[in-house]
Amino acid sequence: MPIFEYAPAPESRAIVDIxxxxxxxxxxxxxxxxxxxFKTTNPATEEVLADVAEASVAxxxxxxxxxxxxxxxxxxxxxxxxxGKYLFRIARIIQERARELAVLESLDNGKPIKESRDxxxxxxxxxxxxxxxxxxxxxYASLGPKPRPIGVVGQVIPWNFPLLMLAWKIxxxxxxxxxxxLKPAETTPLTALLFAEICQQAELPxxxxxxxxxxxxxxxxxxxxxxxxxxxxTGSTEVGKSIAxxxxxxxxxxxxxxxxxxxxxxxxxxxxxxxxxGIVNGIFFNQGHVCCAGSRLLVQESIAEEVDRRLKRRLETxxxxxxxxxxxxxxxxxxxxxxxxxxxxxxxxxxxxxxRWDTGCELPSHGFWFRPTVFTGVSQTHRIAQxxxxxxxxxxxxxxxxxxxxxxxxxxxxxxxxxxxxxxGSRILWMADQLRAGVVWANTFNRFDPTSPFGGYKExxxxxxxxxxxxxAYVTTGDPR
Amino acid sequence: MSTTDAAVDVTARAGDLLGVSRLxxxxxxxxxHGLPGVDQVGCEARAASLGTRSIKTTAKQWAxxxxxxxxxxxxxxxxxxxxxxxxxxAKALVPDPSDPATPRPAAVCVYGDMAAIxxxxxxxxxxxxxxxxxxxxxxxxxxxxxxxDTTDAVAAGADEIDMVIDRGAFLSGRYxxxxxxxxxxxxxxxxxxxxVIMETGELVTxxxxxxxxxxxxxxxxxxxxxxxxxxxxxxxLPVTLIMLEAVRDWRELxxxxxxxxxxxxxxxxxxxxxxxxxxxxxxxxxxLTPERFRFxxxxxxxxxxxxxxxxxxGAYSGADYVTID
Lengths: 481, 325
Known about the structure:
The complex is a heterodimer of chains A (481) and B (325).
Chain A: E1 21-22, E2 24-26, E3 29-31, E4 38-42, E5 47-52, H1 57-75, H2 80-96, H3 98-109, H4 113-134, E6 148-149, E7 152-156, H5 162-175, E8 179-183, H6 190-201, E9 209-211, H7 216-224, E10 230-234, H8 237-247, E11 253-257, E12 263-266, H9 272-284, E13 296-300, H10 304-315, H11 336-351, E14 355-358, E15 373-376, H12 383-386, E16 393-399, H13 402-410, E17 417-421, H14 425-434, E18 439-442, E19 461-462, H15 467-471, E20 475-476
Parallel strand pairs in A: 1-5, 7-8, 7-10, 8-9, 10-11, 12-13, 12-17, 13-16, 15-16, 17-18
Antiparallel strand pairs in A: 2-3, 4-5, 6-20, 11-19, 14-15
Helix pairs in contact in A: 1-7, 2-4, 3-4, 4-5, 9-10
Chain B: H1 3-18, H2 25-33, H3 40-50, H4 57-69, E1 71-74, H5 82-93, E2 107-111, H6 115-122, E3 128-133, H7 143-155, E4 160-164, H8 167-171, H9 175-189, E5 193-197, H10 200-203, H11 206-218, E6 223-225, H12 237-254, E7 259-261, H13 269-283, E8 295-297, H14 299-313
Parallel strand pairs in B: 1-2, 1-8, 2-3, 3-4, 4-5, 5-6, 6-7
InterPro entries (chain B): Aldolase_TIM, DeoC, DeoC/FbaB/LacD_aldolase
Enzyme class (chain B): lyase
Pathway (chain B): Carbohydrate degradation; 2-deoxy-D-ribose 1-phosphate degradation; D-glyceraldehyde 3-phosphate and acetaldehyde from 2-deoxy-alpha-D-ribose 1-phosphate: step 2/2
């Protein structure tokens, strides 16, 4: 037994009030869904949290019509300054209800409370604050002449950062004068439904934000609805491609933020202790359920053994378990399906000859869990170096020269993010120029800020979210035709 | 082993570690500047994240007692008198008269001329007498005076010496001079333990803190210590984190264990707990003992005692329910 054993420090769940069942938030009111209800569970315990309505095609149609009405009659006509006031109000309510949102997010998603408390919720509020500021300054954002809203935006978001992805989508859309129909992921709908309540609390005009829950079919109904002017999607490359196919030939615009297989590149002159932290944060943050996760570690051959030793020693200190415990570093895998996928890909890694290591930590008996895992001796040709695992699994490869690092880093169909660790500034700039990735972090990883545009190259999607660039996706410019 | 042999041993070991037959300033510079750099942002982020650990109930109980037992209860004022030192020693012997089970601090830390008073007051209680030496806090005196300062304190009964390094020599790159001075003071210490104060607030960068840590360990430090307490900033969590990484890596290299002592500015139990978490998760639990980790502090003790009373009785008392010295 350790000398200094941290006693359980659970965050109380008394602050959240989960209803037994939820309807859809359409036109500012709660309506019952016409599809069959589904259950959302706590992935750490497999306990059912609530019944959630499934939006049918007709429900989606009602939501789009509500959004259209709100767009035409209220939101697109409102001054930017007035739209900004609503966004500021929403941002402040998110801050006021931060603990409630954080606990609910950890319950529904399985992520550690320290992450939902210190990352997801504060960043979500920051996105609303940031975009509230833009609402009356769009003409000065260099977006082109006479920026105007597009109309009704259909938004489909993933389960890895439910509230944060909602903020990334809704804040810029509303700031620019659009109205939205948003579908949260079927395994993590609860914070979006609480956000609907926040919209009511903020007295946001009815229909400006509509939340419809459901799985793939509901998402498809949004994408295919003729009344939707723009699609914003974050999720898998597979679904992204099918969205692109289904809107081809229509007037709909789209921004897609898809998968990734980021290289985190460590040179022999790197600040090693911080690089180890960056590697850990890169792949074990949010259980590795991060599209921009540093899932491929490229380490210079001359320090590969030392990095391996330091990394594994550090991983032994990770605390895996109850997401609501304030000392938990790694929480639960979001769903059985995702756990199965991680297990399948790691089995393939072993079968292909990579060397598997995990922390050997104890795992809870219920729920979906996966130990922090490192594969060494990985080659570019292995599936674990090519496919997105979306779990707490790191593939370690080595390189000898900066050119080889660039070649390996870029040798993937994805291009979302990359990390560079070196004390040499000129090399950082040269590498950043060579890497085909939308975000390149230098001597850090997984840092997000609403002022910084985020998005991918190649099969990681198109369009940017955040910053001035992110506004471009939500406006049209020039004289109306 | 005679003390002269010990100094020779330090230099010989340094030559072995650096792979050279003769230690020069150039070889020391190459070695120290070859240590991995420290990224300031990443280091501070790591320290901040360790500071968010939530230490409750039984863990808090253990940590408060551990922290009390790691304190070097300190008075380093020009106005110190034998009476003041005796009352500090009495406080060390009986930290909390309301609970005899309260652990005692590790040492009482005083100026050299008070070492005999402290030694007499503490007797054979097991509480160490630490004396600051080598022209503390500035370190601006001749080598001869610094060594005399050290031998004098040891002769007066100090069994721990807290020396300061020559920051001027360090910052101008005269590493060999710093090395030799530490080695000679170590020799002058005899059996007394040597804590080397780097005065990290004057070294400014984390790279310097890391290099000074390795240089001190190479020269024979038993402990590396952040600060005199006379310069701001004194101890910070990121600086202590760097030093804990240094002692961890030093053990990997040499199998020897060097202790760490943050000093100055740690006043609350909450802060002390953050340091213990950092020790636990960075250096490892082998360092969670007064033999290897100390707090240089004075007011910290009373805050720990208040928290300890709160855990014991379930209610906060107040400043009037702990003795001021």
